[in-house]
Amino acid sequence: MKSTCSILSAAVFCSLLLDGRAGAENYSLWPRRPAELQQARMLMAEGKGSEAIYLLRPYWRAKGVTGQEARLLTAHVNVPRYLTRNHPGITIYTVRRGDTMPRVARNSACPQDLVMLLNGIVEPSNLKVGQKLAVVPMKQHLEIHLPSKELCVWDEDSLVATYRIEALDGVPLRGGNTDTCVKSREVYQGGSRVRAGASASSDRALLLENGLLITGDKQMRGQVILMNQRDLNELVLLVGEKAPVFLVRDEKKFLDGLEAGAAQQPSTGDKTPAVKPTSAPPASTSSD
Questions:
Q1: What is the pTM for the complete model shown?
Q2: Helical pair 112-119 and 229-238, crossing angle rounded to 10 deg
Q3: Fewer CB within 10 A of the end CB, N or C, for the chain?
Q4: How far apart are CA 95 and CA 197, in angstroms?
Q5: Domain limit, last residue, from 120, 135, 150
Q6: Residue 131 covered by a domain
Q7: How confident is the model at residue 269 (pLDDT cuts 50, 70, 90)?
Q8: Is 83 exposed, middle or buried (0-12, 13-18, 19+ CB in 10 A)?
Q9: Range of the domain at 99
């Protein structure tokens, strides 16, 4: 049997290649694009992810190709931080008598698949009392931008990841912005739903409280958001059950709401993201 690490790491890190969507060859096509994007790429090539994020942050909400590239580059830096032991929020969970892997995941607010990935666990039933497990509590929320077919993962006001939505089936594009939450993770093998404790090689899906299903299975019908399955397997690692989900149909109204909410908060300067500080440029000698 393949190890959990080899199975999930492939899904996680292959998607970071960005599928060529923001490749350097596109630079000649966008003569007016901000110089910060090119500078961020150079910093990333030098292993200075924190400095790159500082340059990209102002463009996370930008429209068009500028915003798309800024979000993709940010995901390239942040996803590995969130899905490896490099996350500064990592803690140690000690297995107690009666613990099962689902219980560990629930008690630690760390998705079961991520617990297994971080600790190289292949068989979730082989837990031992006193065993030390690395866990990362996941507190992210999702924004599903229906008009632009983009799904973004945020940690408070810090962007973590972005994914392309391939298709929408039975999902209304008109109407107001609504919110819901993640109800459960569904597991599929061969197009059929199986028990939640299935192996790490099973394809994942997310069921929302409002009945929407985020899936990679093109045969599914109903209210469906279709994603690349590799991307979806990664997304499932980044969000916990009950994670807030915002369905955005009116982009302007949504952004106006964000600005209004920010204006009501006490002015304390830039907020500190969960993973790396970006309110000031890190020292040039830093390396991620």
A1: 0.75
A2: 90
A3: N
A4: 18
A5: 135
A6: yes
A7: very low
A8: buried
A9: 91-135
Residue 210 in domain: yes
Give percent above pLDDT 90 in the chain: 48
Q: Are residues 108 and 149 in the same domain?
A: no
Closest Cα to residue 114, out of 248, 11, 18? 11
Q: Which of 111, 92, 91, 93 is nearest to 102 (CA)?
A: 111
| Residues ≥6 apart with Cβ < 8 Å to 173 | 146, 147, 249
Question: Which H or E run includes 69?
Answer: helix 64-82
Structural domains counted in the chain: 3
Give me 162's structure tokens: 């972005």
Do 69 and 153 lie in one domain? The reply is: no
- Provide the residue type at 267 as one letter: S
What digits encode the pLDDT tens for the residues 181-222?
Answer: 999 888 766 666 665 555 556 788 999 999 999 999 888 888
Look up residue 285 and give its DSSP letter: T
Question: Do 121 and 50 belong to one domain?
Answer: no
